[in-house]
Known about the structure:
The protein is of the alpha/beta class. The chain is built from 6 helices and 8 strands; from the N terminus they run E-E-E-H-E-H-H-E-H-E-E-H-E-H. Strands 1-2-4-3-5-6-7-8 form an 8-stranded mixed beta sheet, sandwiched between helices.
Amino acid sequence: MDILRERIEVPVPDGTAMAGYLARPAGEIAPVGVIVAHELFGVNPDIRSIVDEIAAAGHLVIAPEFYHRDAEQGRYLARDDDGRRAGFALLHKLSRAGAIADVRAAMTTLTSRYAVREVALVGFSAGGHLAYLAAASLPISRTAVLYGGWLPTTDIPLSRPEPTLELTPGISGQVLCLYGGNDALIDADQLERISTALRSNEVQHELVVYPGVQHAFFWAGTPAFDRDARDDAMKRILALLA
């Protein structure tokens, strides 16, 4: 399917403007619009590629630059030690209130400017945490959390004052959680705590663990990439959005 791409700006109520990468099908748009929450490195070519892939399935998709208060527009980071250090510095400036305001502003843009009926969220790693937080705080109908970390802890500002996992009762939509079984950042105890929170709060969900797969398995060309897990994850994401 042919897709159209553009850079847009989303006004946020705190007076800032949040840039975003948007893609949509050239023809009819599906009723579910999608926000993609980037991982540590910002809206890089990998994130833009998944925006394009979901748009090719018929959805209007935006990847907002959630670091917009502290990084220049269009900036993304390399997948190396320097990029990780810079990414963590930016992540530790992103407050819970700011992230929720950003997602709410992106939702308003999708529903008012483009007339989608529902908003879904797909998040990777730090963006997976942000997606879970948003699902617990806003009327998001479908959420895919790919190896979202720190959910049971207070290690990053997004997970304060209480761990984001404690906000699970606020989730009203469907949740799809996708994790690698050999994720060095998210161990079996954390996965069990996430599963317990979703089950005990009767959230409509699916939690998939890929045996032997590492953190950040989704991206081709990276050491953790796993083609089978990536293909299965993408199939599940598109089924959730459909």
